[in-house]
């Protein structure tokens, strides 16, 4: 069996050896962020005051603290900002590799598109808000959407959109007895305390 040297630095046996190896090979884990950040303090201050989103403000605050020396390490910055240190590392990596413009760019995630398109919802809302016409049932809404927009959606989907998202109730009259006398009804309305 042949042995292959895997590293130039010999593997340490104890902690004292690790310290002496650091001194011998000048292993320094601290990074001089003040040199890596090419913006001036005045530029960082103006950028900090211009930021509207919390994430961008935290990113510029990170650069400012490291540039001024207020914080010496990424861990210290992360503790002060209340974020994880790997997030701060990612920010610094993004700043050094992609520049300030990409660093401050907020990427929006598109997400899943809605089942019912916004123009259909606006049409339903407009129709519901009309005084004279409206929908008497959710089946009627289903038919109307299919006729006007050529989109077929489930009853449950339309019901949920209309009832909970639009917070609308259908215009249905109260049930009335077939046997009631219209003259008695007017007499009742006259004597009522409500009207």
Task: Explain what you see.
It is a single chain. With 195 residues, the chain is an all-alpha fold. Among the domains are: 33-103, no CATH class; 118-165, no CATH class. It has 11 helices and no strands. Helix 3 packs antiparallel against helix 4 (54-68) and helix 5 crosses helix 6.
The total strand number stands at 0
Number of helices: 11
Q: What radius of gyration results from the CA coordinates?
A: 34 Å
Global structural class? mainly alpha
Strand content: under 5%
Mean pLDDT: 81
Distance between the termini: 104 Å
Low-pLDDT residue spans: 1-9
The gross shape turns out to be elongated
- Residues in helix, %: 55-70%
Order of helices and strands: HHHHHHHHHHH
Largest sheet geometry = none
In short:
With 195 residues, the protein is mostly helical. Among the domains are: 33-103, no CATH class; 118-165, no CATH class.
């Amino acid at each position: 069996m042949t042995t292959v040297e895997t590293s130039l630095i010999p593997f340490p046996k104890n902690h004292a050896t690790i310290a002496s190896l650091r001194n011998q090979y000048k292993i320094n884990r601290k990074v001089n962020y003040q040199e890596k950040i090419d913006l001036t303090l005045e530029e960082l201050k103006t950028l900090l005051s211009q930021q509207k989103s919390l994430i961008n403000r935290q990113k510029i605050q990170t650069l400012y603290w490291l540039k001024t020396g207020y914080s010496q390490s990424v861990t210290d910055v992360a503790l002060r900002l209340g974020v994880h240190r790997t997030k701060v590392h990612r920010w610094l990596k993004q700043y050094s590799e992609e520049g300030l413009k990409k660093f401050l760019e907020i990427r929006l995630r598109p997400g899943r598109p809605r089942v019912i398109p916004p123009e259909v919802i606006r049409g339903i809302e407009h129709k519901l808000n009309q005084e004279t016409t409206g929908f008497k049932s959710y089946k009627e809404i289903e038919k109307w959407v299919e006729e006007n927009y050529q989109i077929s959606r489930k009853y449950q989907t339309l019901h949920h959109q209309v009832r909970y998202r639009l917070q609308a109730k259908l215009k249905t009259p109260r049930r009335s007895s077939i046997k009631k006398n219209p003259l008695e009804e007017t007499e009742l309305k006259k004597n009522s305390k409500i009207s």
